[in-house]
Amino acid sequence: MLMFSVFVFGSVVLATISLFMTLEGKAAEAKELILTISGVFSGPLGLILGYYFRSEIEKKHSP
């Protein structure tokens, strides 16, 4: 699961960089792009990753 989350995070970062390069550095479009990416990480993806890491911590602390 950790490799999957690293893959997803890397893919999103690379997609953001490639989209920003095609926008030629326009600030308004970059702002919208950053808001979209942060919404993805705080929304469903954040929920999935938080649930996974919480279950991993509970496994380590249970006898």
From TrEMBL:
Entry superkingdom: Bacteria
Membrane spanning residue stretches? 6-23, 35-53
Which keywords appear in this protein's UniProt record, sorted alphabetically?
Membrane, Transmembrane, Transmembrane helix
Q: What is this protein called?
A: Uncharacterized protein
